[in-house]
């Protein structure tokens, strides 16, 4: 699994895929869909598909694939290796959704929640398999939202394919278990080797599971909260956990709008407005010796001006 395309720029979504086995282009195939990392406030969410000929279902079962959540990291890595070695009849594809992609999607002006993003990602991966020539006849999906509605949605989108959507599908259907393992292995590797675009020095990698209720995760979020610029792109800033910390620990920002001048509103509430961070120093060019310009400005070679 070559993660270098995503590691080169982890701000965006990225698709990775194995080669398509020749047999999958000539025989009826089944395909499973599952995800890893839906709940964490840190790191990406990874959607995975795995497919093989219907005639090879028993061989896939013999690999003893299981729901990735019931396996240790070492067991998942071992099973992924077995799936990769079965490339003569097993194929897979992944969509890595960066934290930045997730948050900007959820916070855009037009409502686009995590369920809609998940559905669209799954549909995109199934369509990728079809476009690649995989002869799909059966699709099995771990549900997101009501199973019956999701099943109807996929059945209408892919007529002629038998679609089965079930809760806990990763524990019911080996092909979904295989997709679960591919997705989880990819996410574990990405999180462990995350390339921080921000200059954070020697980053503390003890950030725990990434789930909001993990004490290690909470400690890490407090440690790396910049009071003005918020969090590095490793954090899903649309999550309520991150938003709550920013509201309570970061600098209050007042934006100018049509109703009231932002500077005056900020002064009245004894807060600084966003504009004040970009204005020239009241002391002219003599900055406080202890003041260190934020990397946002130095990276872009921005300087304060006395006048426009």
From TrEMBL:
What's a single GO MF annotation on this record?
A: metal ion binding
Q: Where is the RNase H type-2 domain?
A: 28-251
* A biological process from GO: mismatch repair
List cofactor names only. Answer: Mn(2+); Mg(2+)
InterPro entries noted in UniProt = RNase_H2_suA (IPR004649), RNase_HII/HIII (IPR001352), RNase_HII/HIII_dom (IPR024567), RNase_HII_hlx-loop-hlx_cap_dom (IPR023160), RNaseH-like_sf (IPR012337), RNaseH_sf (IPR036397)
Annotated Gene3D superfamilies: Ribonuclease H-like superfamily/Ribonuclease H, Ribonuclease hii. Domain 2
Q: What parts of the sequence cross the membrane?
A: none
Q: How is the cofactor bound?
A: Manganese or magnesium. Binds 1 divalent metal ion per monomer in the absence of substrate. May bind a second metal ion after substrate binding.
Keyword check for Metal-binding: yes
* UniProt protein name: Ribonuclease
Query: What organism, scientifically named, is this protein from?
Result: Parambassis ranga (Indian glassy fish)
